[in-house]
Amino acid sequence: MKIFLDTADLNEIRRAADAGLIDGVTTNPSLMAKVAGDRDPTDLFLDICKAVDGPVSAEVVALDKDTMVAEGRRLAELADNIVVKIPLTEDGLRACRALTAEGIRTNVTLCFSAPQAVLAAKAGASYISPFVGRIDDISGEGMQLISQIRQMYDNYGFGTEILTASIRHPAHVVEAMLIGSDCGTMPPKVLYQLLKHPLTDKGLDAFMADWKTLGKDL
Ligand code: E4P
Prior knowledge:
By secondary structure, the protein is α/β, with parallel strands linked by helices. It has a single domain, classed as Aldolase class I (TIM Barrel). It has helices spanning about 10-20, 30-35, 40-50, 65-80, 90-100, 115-120, 130-135, 140-155, 170-180, 190-195, 200-210, and strands at about 1-5, 25, 55-60, 80-85, 105-110, 125-130, 160-165, 185. Helix 5 links the parallel strand 4 and strand 5 (about 105-110).
């Protein structure tokens, strides 16, 4: 499963990319608003695209199809690794179809049901982003949606990649991988939780303490 970092924070992106931990980045208007400040958003997208060797989802902010397509084209021109993120609305699916026809990659976002995911695939989406954490937040079963989409896409041979989004903890990552999600996007906090285990820390402390008793350098 490809691991994407869900942030627009350049320091976090550079840290994770330098460590070889991520395959791409996803952003959304809220994440951009958190860090962009006075910066031109397109400059920030450009810097993100340079910082990571993989797809970078950049979201349109218009609500009507024609403006979404115009924004999508502008975003796609910024860098080869831009994926245009589009909300799952009727206009969004129209824009997705139009951009796909022009060879522009798309990520259809804000997916909360299996039928929505099927319509996005039929519109030619490169990625579908079901938000598992937000479904869990309202007492739903986020991961069940990933299973349903996996099965439906496989049954009918849809090539749209499932990008499990709104991941809140490492168990979501493991479950997404067991189901066969193609990608998962998570905030930096969850990415580094994947790396940590108390027994690793404890074991390392013991190894270091034992080595010290030798009184030698390596
Ligand atoms: C994905 O594309 C979204 O940016 C993101 O995963 C949403 O996560 P949240 O529900 O934690 O805001």
